[in-house]
Amino acid sequence: MNIEMIRAAAGRLEGHARRTPLLSSPFLDEIAGRRVWVKPECLQHTGSFKFRGAWSALSALDPEVRKSGVIAFSSGNHAQGVALAAKLHGVPAVIVMPEDSPKLKIENTRAYGAEVVLYDRDSESREEIGARLSEERGLTLIKPFDEPQVIAGQGTCGLEIAAQAAEQGIEKADVIVCCGGGGLTSGIALALEADAPGLRVRTAEPEGFDDVARSLRSGGIERNNQLSGNICDAIITPQPGDITFPIMHRLCGPGLVVTEDEALRAMAQAFNRLKIVSEPGGAVALAAALFRKDEIEGDDVIVTISGGNVDAPMFIRALETLE
Amino acid sequence: MNIEMIRAAAGRLEGHARRTPLLSSPFLDEIAGRRVWVKPECLQHTGSFKFRGAWSALSALDPEVRKSGVIAFSSGNHAQGVALAAKLHGVPAVIVMPEDSPKLKIENTRAYGAEVVLYDRDSESREEIGARLSEERGLTLIKPFDEPQVIAGQGTCGLEIAAQAAEQGIEKADVIVCCGGGGLTSGIALALEADAPGLRVRTAEPEGFDDVARSLRSGGIERNNQLSGNICDAIITPQPGDITFPIMHRLCGPGLVVTEDEALRAMAQAFNRLKIVSEPGGAVALAAALFRKDEIEGDDVIVTISGGNVDAPMFIRALETLE
After folding, report:
1. For labelling alongside A278, which of A22, A81, A187, B70 has CA 20 to 30 A away?
2. How far away is chain A from the Cα of B303, in angstroms, using its nearest Cα?
3. Min distance A211 CA to chain B CA atoms (Å)
4. What tens digit of pLDDT does each residue of A40-72 get?
5. In terms of domains, do B239 and B105 share one?
6. CB nearest to A43's CB, from B23, B316, B320
7. Chain A residues within 8 angstroms (CB to CB) of chain B
8. Both B300 and B223 in a single domain?
């Protein structure tokens, strides 16, 4: 896993992934007490950064292997990213999802052209289903984060941040990244190490699901005690990845942690001041910049908004935090 | 008023205004029955395209004249655009607003650094107040649309659309523009005439406030019978401008008209599929593309989202149209 893989992924993504802008608002600067720069990956295809990694992984496959199709386990943003990337490559995608997944997520994944295979969480193993389907049909598994070509794709977001920060004259800043398994975080960290060494990556996670912050502190991989019961579900994973964690440990500053209420209030500010739609898990980095300012250093802070796939009732909950 | 003024404005806006992206979603294509491309000016500074025209006008002033300051009559997007452009030029801005303007708009305009002068709509004339202040302080009036340097600034959005359409291989399409006084529409029309002659501008307006559609049909300037009572208030003006109308008449196709409900449903789709926040008046062009498809020609349609300055209760009303 190295910077050359990220640069190669950027070449493959050119003309396919969106180069998202870098947004700002004097109102956010006022709240944060420093300049806040926002990288809105909610504006990426399929509404999250996951399209980058999915495209990177698919485009890196041998065409003979790729044409048999790909498979992913996900009920969320990774599923949609893989489904659309496969469709645009003209190859089949199978997405294995729990049968109690939200209907909208199932429908969206199907609408992006994927075949959705549902399973019963209690009585079936998705790994067994996946292994059987892969063998029968020659499908290639696209892992959500602990896979070099996926990390390389997410890292292209970091190359853009480095270039956009340089355009704004920012040489030194914390870059806060919404962190689940660490694919986006480790990819951005490698990109910044090469192209903007004055920018330091920090992770943001929901309170009670801070496996990465604890792992960074202890120096070893720590697990979450629970995997559900938080509105930031899109970025909750059991533990950091075997490939992503050593990169994060080497390059990241201390992890930041925010409450659900702070995530909702950050969503409301992104609506009000940036005119963008973020999901709770996608807003934790902005929440850290706005509401945990004493834990951040420097005159500038850069944050990712990792996704915007949120339904109306949850978004209304966020808007209700205004005034 | 000509294309060279637009190109010169683009030079002055470089590094100051945002180059907004061109977004799309297969879900919107499905509804519209053709490919839909969205130019989200809600992501522009101050949340609307108005910053372009304001920056263009301020930057075109003689520095000696500019340093005394500028004045504008507006309670909305133009006020915020002028306020921020003046602040960034380091010169004073006075914004004359009705005293019954929404508190949030007054506060935002002040927060962008402007001095807000309130007047009583019933007993005072804003023109008299403006004339007195201008004389006393040497302020230059920045008109909202019928002013060549303002039109030139809005036209920079058209230069971007021409370049972005070419990148996507779109040679022929209707370009639907949310239309009030016609500053954005005429600026985009001039830019496309020069840089993308296969793209034809169409106006979009709210039902009952279709002065431009009627003017385009009759060939002369027609007025609106009323100026309030519609949620698309941001784009309602008494009549098209003396400078903007001849340009629109020469270059635009027939005007499109949508209902308030269609505007709300378009806002909901922009939330759901593009992850952006639009105001009702800013969503009329997307509404026309999605819900008036029989009145549009071609395989592709490009629409502007002109602004995103909407408060939470109105946005919630839009979200409630989903399902």
Report:
1. A187
2. 17
3. 29
4. 999 999 999 999 999 999 999 999 999 999 999
5. no
6. B23
7. 18-21, 23, 26-27, 30, 40, 42-43, 47, 84, 111-112, 268, 271-272, 274-278, 308-309, 312, 315-316, 319-320, 322
8. yes
Longest dimension (CA), chain B: 57
> Minimal Cα–Cα distance from B67 to chain A, Å?
23
Query: For residue B43, which residues of chain A lie inside 8 Å, CB to CB?
Result: 21, 23, 274-276
Give a three-class secondary structure readout of chain B: CCHHHHHHHHHHHCCCCCCCCCECCHHHHHHHCCEEEEEEHHHCHHHECHHHHHHHHHHHCCHHHHCCCEEEECCCHHHHHHHHHHHHHCCCEEEEEECCCCHHHHHHHHHCCCEEEEECCCCCCHHHHHHHHHHHHCCEECCCCCCHHHHHHHHHHHHHHHHHHHHCCCCCEEEEEECCCCHHHHHHHHHHHHHCCCEEEEEEEECCCCHHHHHHHHCCCCCCCCCCCCCCHHHCCCCCCCCHHHHHHHHCCCCEEECHHHHHHHHHHHHHHHCECCCCHHHHHHHHHHHCHHHCCCCEEEEEECECCCCHHHHHHHHCCCC
Of A26, A47, A276, the CB nearest to B277: A276
CA distance B254 to chain A (A): 30
Residue of B23, B26, B319 with shortest CB distance to A315: B319
Query: Both A195 and A128 in a single domain?
Result: no
Same domain, B23 and B55: no
Smallest CA–CA separation between A223 and chain B, in Å?
32
- Tell me which residue range forms the domain holding B134: 51-141
Domain check: are A34 and A169 in the same one?
yes
Residues B164 and B295 in one domain: yes
Give the CATH number for residue A72: 3.40.50.1100
Chain B residue nearest residue A319, CA to CA: B312
**What's the confidence (pLDDT) of residue B181?**
95
Residues whose CB is less than 8 angstroms from the CB of residue A98 and which lie 6 or more positions away in sequence, other chains included: A75, A118, A119, A120, A121, A126
ipTM > 0.85 (yes/no): yes
Query: Do B26 and A316 count as a contact with CB atoms less than 8 A apart?
Result: no
pLDDT, one tens digit for every residue, chain B (323 residues): 999 999 999 999 999 999 999 999 999 999 999 999 999 999 999 999 999 999 999 999 999 999 999 999 987 899 999 999 999 999 999 999 988 887 878 888 999 999 999 999 888 888 889 889 989 999 999 999 999 999 999 999 999 999 999 999 999 999 999 999 999 999 999 999 999 999 999 999 999 999 999 999 999 999 998 888 899 988 899 999 999 999 999 999 999 999 999 999 999 999 999 999 999 999 999 999 999 999 999 999 999 999 999 999 999 999 999 97
Residues B247 and B300 in one domain: yes
Last residue of a domain, one of B92, B126, B141: B141
Q: Do A112 and B319 touch (CB under 8 A)?
A: no
Last residue of a domain, one of A99, A115, A141: A141
Closest to B275 (Cβ–Cβ): which among A21, A42, A111? A42
**What pLDDT, in 10s, does the model give residues A179-233?**
999 999 999 999 999 999 999 999 999 999 999 999 999 999 999 988 888 999 8
> Residue A312: which of B18, B21, B319 has the nearest Cβ?
B319
Are A276 and B275 a contacting pair at CB < 8 A?
yes
Cβ within 8 Å, pair B26-A111: yes
Looking at the fold, whether A193 and A86 belong to one and the same domain comes out as: no
- Measure in Å the smallest separation between the Cα of B214 and chain A Cα atoms: 32
